[in-house]
Automatic annotation (TrEMBL):
Record organism: Rubrobacter marinus
Superkingdom, natural source: Bacteria
UniProt-recorded name of the protein: Phosphoribosylformylglycinamidine cyclo-ligase
EC primary class: ligase
Pfam families (alphabetical): AIRS, AIRS_C
Classification via CDD domains: PurM (cd02196)
A molecular-function term among this protein's GO annotations: phosphoribosylamine-glycine ligase activity
Cellular compartments annotated: Cytoplasm
Catalyzed reactions per annotation: 2-formamido-N(1)-(5-O-phospho-beta-D-ribosyl)acetamidine + ATP = 5-amino-1-(5-phospho-beta-D-ribosyl)imidazole + ADP + phosphate + H(+)
């Protein structure tokens, strides 16, 4: 007699409802701690509800992004705690660059086989990043998809929505030749360029546990340094000075992102006018990466740029210093498009 096939089930196919429920339970308190009075109770939970008020002509700004192959570094190091902050801060900065205030965030975490503790750690990290920025984490999705992802794979995506008055939208159209470009420091790689950054380390046979000469941290710690948020200092700046253009420096570096804030004009930037984190020097040296390629792939120490009128530059720098930012005056706007790097600093 032929033995019958065992009963089919979601669990047998590789998806565990129980693991998903466990992850949700582990993160619930952290998520709810980000909710202020604007978050409308919604027992059904099919979508997050947020009461938008106090704006006469509200404009919504929305963005979505992922942490990319930085998750592979986290897996190699065995530490995922910074990835939630990475995606919150990345998305918040994108919204900020439009002139809007980031208000709500949603996360998406997918894996071939969910580890509830890892997923909950990522979401708790996102919630902890949301709170000081005044952002409410109003929803998310945890997906287990064997066959699409290998067992230990992890994919992390976030979406952020903000709002502002129509008259407060920053498009760069008011930028003029002679305006000053101010750079706000990055914390390192942020969430861009990791395919090249990882390859350089792997090709050199370097371990993420290695401590390069002159360093006090490992390569893995430097690579996992969280993406920095600029909401607090830029908000303070805009209360004091008219900001004509803003750029979040992500993939494409300064040449690929700063022109988006200049209304068709260009910028002259002075080499050496800002500090470059040591991680970029390591990548440049190990991989023998050309300077043009470094500038095109990485932020090289400038994570966000603001453009102000030359007469407001001194006040802008003072406001940013008072807000705790290590901002530097890094260049000025010129008539021709693109970004030119010249000796200086």
């Amino acid at each position: 007699m032929t033995e019958s096939n065992p009963p089919s089930s979601y669990e047998a196919a590789g998806v565990s409802i129980e693991r998903g429920d466990e992850a949700t339970g582990l993160m619930r308190a952290s998520v709810e701690a980000t909710h202020g009075p604007q978050v409308v109770p919604n027992p059904g939970g099919f979508a997050g509800l947020y009461a938008l008020s106090g704006l006469r002509e509200p404009v919504l700004a929305s963005t979505i992004d992922g942490v990319g192959t930085k998750v592979l570094v986290a897996g190699a190091v065995g530490r995922y705690d910074s990835l939630g902050a990475d995606i919150v801060n990345h998305c918040a900065n994108d919204v900020l660059a439009t002139g809007a205030t980031p208000l709500v965030f949603l996360d998406y975490v997918a894996s071939g086989r969910l580890d509830p503790a890892v997923v909950a750690g990522v979401v708790r990290g996102a919630a902890e990043a949301c709170r000081p920025l005044g952002i409410s984490l109003v929803g998310g999705e945890t997906a287990e998809m064997p066959g699409l992802y290998a067992g230990g794979d992890l994919d992390i995506v976030g979406a952020c929505v903000g709002a502002c008055e129509r008259g407060d939208v920053v498009t760069g159209e008011g930028v003029e030749v002679g305006d000053v470009v101010i750079g706000l420091p990055s914390s390192g790689l942020h969430t861009n360029g990791y395919t090249l950054a990882r390859k350089v380390v792997e090709d050199a046979g370097l371990s993420y546990a290695s401590v390069p000469e002159g360093w006090v941290e490992t390569v893995g710690e430097a690579y996992l340094e969280p993406h920095r948020a600029y909401v607090r200092e830029v908000s303070a700046l805009r209360r004091s000075v008219r900001v004509r253009g803003m750029a979040h420096v992500t993939g494409g570096g300064l040449p690929g992102n700063l022109p988006r804030a200049l209304g068709g004009r260009g910028a002259r930037l002075y080499e050496g006018s800002w500090e470059e984190p040591a991680v970029f020097g390591l990548i440049r040296a190990l991989g023998k990466v050309s300077e043009d390629e470094m500038r095109r792939v990485f932020n090289l120490g400038v994570g966000f740029c603001v453009v102000v009128e030359s007469g407001d530059a001194e006040e802008a720098m003072a406001v940013l210093r008072d807000a705790g930012s290590g901002a530097r005056r890094i260049g000025e706007v010129v008539g021709d498009g693109g970004v030119e790097f010249v000796p200086g600093g």
